[in-house]
Design goal:
Blueprint lengths: L4 E4 L4 E4 L2 E3 L12 H13 L4 E3 L4 H4 L1 H11 L8 E6 L1 E2 L9 E2 L3 H15 L4 E6 L8 H13 L3 E7 L3 H10 L7 E4 L6 H4 L2 H8 L4 E3 L13 H17 L3 H10 L6 E4 L4 H8 L8 H12 L5
Parallel strand pairs: 3-4, 3-12, 4-5, 5-8, 8-9, 9-10, 10-11, 11-12
Antiparallel strand pairs: 1-2, 6-7
Helix pairs in contact: 1-3, 3-4, 4-5, 5-6, 9-10, 9-12
The structure holds NADP nicotinamide-adenine-dinucleotide phosphate.
Length: about 300
């Protein structure tokens, strides 16, 4: 079964329901050569994963470039994939002594141009503001988003790690619909279910992207009793359904009506394939709540 596309009706746009994340690309024990990255992109495409989640800062500002070298060598890939990238985090270094955020129009424009150059593409499908900037000016941001879209350099803008009020503030002055809010969410980080983040997605008609879906791998190397019990429950359901624990885990995200889009972080080709097959193992409402209960260590009220 191929990973399906998920539609963003307000944007006349779709991406694969699972997205491949580039944060850990440079940590792959098999390397980050053009050949290895090409193999990973091909594996994703073979299973219907056509969307890749970058950020300017990933891999010490080098992962966009590593990926771009693959697109340069295999330009036919460009029409088969969708590229998401992010901007706004400024890491300390020779230019700045202090880590900070920059959502000024000059910096957003500079970052977009730099990502286009490094990725070797003419247009970015999606650009997200990586973190909410306490100094962000929604009027200035909207103006530059609009200008860049009109120039044909970016198709859609969105945000990441925004609270509901931050999202609403920006959306209230930006004429086009923001495409997503990419947030941390997993069995070990369930706040977006309860703090209004996913309610807002339904209300505004977008699909949230969710990062660290395996809690950075912690689901599979549990440290506490609760974490161990969570993995055991995933394994019990997997045995009952004749699949693997990771497939149950990824299936858990699919029940939510907001249409959550997990961003995969594994560098392992077999684990990419396994995740892609999660659609064959739907969970019942009771199974969904059982996993929530065991992971939170308490039943719902
Ligand atoms: N917007 C943001 O602020 C933000 C922040 C963080 C991440 N992200 C995005 O989200 C993506 C995913 O985040 P993530 O990398 O933290 O995802 P993740 O899946 O939660 O963590 C990946 C880690 O878990 C391990 N892992 C995954 N599946 C496993 C399995 N079945 N068994 C054992 N270990 C497993 C991986 O090791 P192996 O490689 O060995 O499988 C890897 O070390 C990133 O690439 C990035 O695109 C966005």
């Amino acid at each position: 079964m191929m990973v399906p596309q998920i539609e963003f009706p307000k944007h006349n746009f779709s991406i694969s329901r699972l997205v491949y994340g580039i944060w850990r690309l440079h940590e792959d024990p098999l390397g980050a050569t053009v050949e290895r990255i090409y193999e990973k992109i091909q594996t994703c495409l073979n299973f219907g994963i056509d969307t890749f989640d970058h950020a300017d800062i990933y891999g010490d500002f080098e992962n966009e470039e590593r990926f771009g070298r693959v697109l340069e060598k295999h330009p036919s890939l460009k029409s088969k994939i969708k590229i998401i990238t992010k901007c706004g985090i400024q890491v300390p270094g020779s230019k700045f002594p202090t880590k900070h955020y920059n959502t000024s129009k000059e910096h957003i424009r500079y970052s977009v141009e730099r990502s286009l150059h490094k990725l070797k593409v003419d247009v970015l499908d999606v650009v997200l503001i990586h973190r909410p900037d306490p100094l962000m000016d929604p009027y200035e941001m909207s103006e530059v988003f609009d200008a860049i879209i009109k120039e044909g350099k970016v198709k859609h803008f969105g945000v990441s790690n925004f609270t509901t009020t931050q999202f609403q503030m920006l959306q209230s002055v930006y004429d086009r619909p923001l495409i997503t809010n990419q947030v941390e969410f997993s069995l070990f980080c369930t706040e977006p279910l309860f703090d209004g983040t996913f309610d807002q997605a339904i209300q505004f008609g977008f699909h949230p992207m969710v990062w660290s879906p395996t809690a950075g791998g912690r689901i599979f190397s549990p440290k506490t009793d609760t974490e161990t019990q969570t993995l055991q429950k995933l394994q019990v359901f997997a045995k009952e359904k004749g699949c693997s624990a990771d497939q149950i885990l990824y299936s858990w995200f699919l029940n939510h009506p907001a249409g959550l889009i997990p961003v995969l972080g594994t560098n392992d080709l077999k684990r990419i394939q396994s995740a892609a097959e999660c659609f064959s193992y739907p969970l019942t409402r009771v199974e969904w709540f059982t996993l929530l209960e065991v992971a939170r260590g308490r039943e719902v009220a």
